[in-house]
Amino acid sequence: MERKEIESAVEALVFASGEPVQVKRLCTALGLARPAVERALRDLRDYYAFERRGIRLVQMEDAWQLCSAPEHGEVIRQAFEIRRPAKLSQPALEVLTVIAYYQPATRAYVDQIRGVDSAYTIGLLLDRELIEECGRLQAPGRPRLYRTTQRFLRAFHLSSLDDLPELGENESQMYLDESGEIVNKAGDAPE
Which of 77, 73, 75, 80 minimizes the C-alpha distance to 155? Predict the structure, then answer.
C-alpha cells in the first residue's frame, strides 16, 4: 500500500469506529506493521491541526479517536442543543487529582490525603466515567483500587498520564506499599 492509501484506510477505520481505536487493532485490520500505521496516524493528526480542519485526531495512550475541534465546541452545542457539561466541583477535582497522580489508589488513601470522606465524590466520578475500579488491594478488607480512564484523558486533553504537570518539589509524593500502608517516595511512613 502507498502512504496515502494507508492514511486513507486508517482515517476510515478511526472514523467508522466512533470510539478510541487501539493501534494494534488498526495494524491487524490493515495487515500492516505498527510503524507504518503510527506514521499514518501522526501524519493525519498533523494534517488536521495544520490545516485547521473542523476535526482533530486525538491520541489517548495507545488509542486514537477522531473528535471535533475544540474551538467549535460552542457552535456544536448550540446546533445540537447539547447542554454544557456540568463542571466538576472543587472536591471532585481534588479526588480526581489524587487518583490521577497516585493511581491505583483506594478510597481510604484519597480520604487520608484530603482529610475528609470522599465516598460520594468517588461515586460521582465513577458515574461520569472519569475513574474506574481496577482491582482490589491485597490487604485486610480488600479495598477497591481506582484509576483514571480514557474519558479522563480526553476530558483534560491529555495523550497519556505522562502529560500531567509535575508535582512541585515541596510536594512529598506518597504511595501505597504492598501491605496497604501509605509511604513517601523514600519508603518512610508520613508523619
Answer: 73
The three three-digit cell numbers of residue 91, written as one number:
472536591
CA 21 – CA 62 distance, rounded (Å): 8
The residues facing 132 across adjacent strands are: 147
Tens digit of each residue's pLDDT (9 = 90 or more) over 74-124: 888 778 765 556 688 889 999 999 999 998 999 999 999 988 999 999 999
Helix, strand, or coil (residue 28): helix
Cβ(59)–Cβ(42) under 8 Å?
A: no
pTM here is 0.57
The conformation of residue 157, written as its DSSP 8-state character, comes to T
Cα separation, 127 vs 90, whole angstroms: 17
Pairing of strands 174-176, 144-148: unpaired
Q: Please give the share of the chain, as a percent, with pLDDT higher than 70.
A: 84
